[in-house]
UniProtKB/TrEMBL annotation:
GO terms for cellular component: membrane. GO terms for molecular function: heme binding; iron ion binding; monooxygenase activity; oxidoreductase activity, acting on paired donors, with incorporation or reduction of molecular oxygen. Keywords: Heme, Iron, Membrane, Metal-binding, Monooxygenase, Oxidoreductase, Transmembrane, Transmembrane helix. It comes from the Eukaryota. Its cofactor is heme. This is Uncharacterized protein. It is found in: Membrane.
Length: 145
């Protein structure tokens, strides 16, 4: 059996070979390597989710949501509240630092001063959370930034 990484590398090589089948062509590798890394992460994550049973049966059978099968909905709401409280704590901690910290939250809070209607705490928390959910630091590491 071919590993996920080997399979994704083979897919990339086939795409590159198909692109250059009529001779030499210029290829922008940064996006190709980002796609390779993203595909690897997503496939590995799906394998792990299946192996540990992390999928929500209610996603496949909506009737299970109505009866709150295994308390999944309540657990997700509780985890969401915990995550929101944690993120709000990060925002508050950086707000008290008065811009002394050199991080994403501090920069967004400085933008909040000039555009408070756009840079709400909710938007800042979302902007901070998205890269961590998308494994962006791992992608940067693999690409070599």
């Amino acid at each position: 059996m071919v590993s996920i990484r080997e399979d994704e590398v083979m897919v990339l090589l086939h795409k590159l070979a198909k692109t250059s089948c009529h001779g030499f062509v210029k290829v922008e590798l940064k996006s190709k390597l980002s796609e390779l890394t993203f595909n690897n992460i997503m496939r590995m994550e799906s394998v792990i989710s299946v192996k540990i049973g992390a999928s929500n049966p209610g996603d496949f059978l909506p009737v299970l949501r109505w009866i709150n099968y295994k308390g999944v909905e309540k657990t997700l709401v509780r985890l969401g509240k915990k995550m929101d409280a944690f993120m709000q704590g990060l925002v508050d901690e950086n707000w008290r630092g008065n811009g002394k910290n050199n991080n994403m939250i501090s920069h967004l809070l400085s933008l909040q001063e000039s555009q408070p209607e756009y840079y709400t705490d909710q938007i800042i928390k979302g902007l901070v959370l998205v890269p961590s959910l998308c494994s962006e630091p791992l992608i940067r590491c693999n690409i070599g930034h």
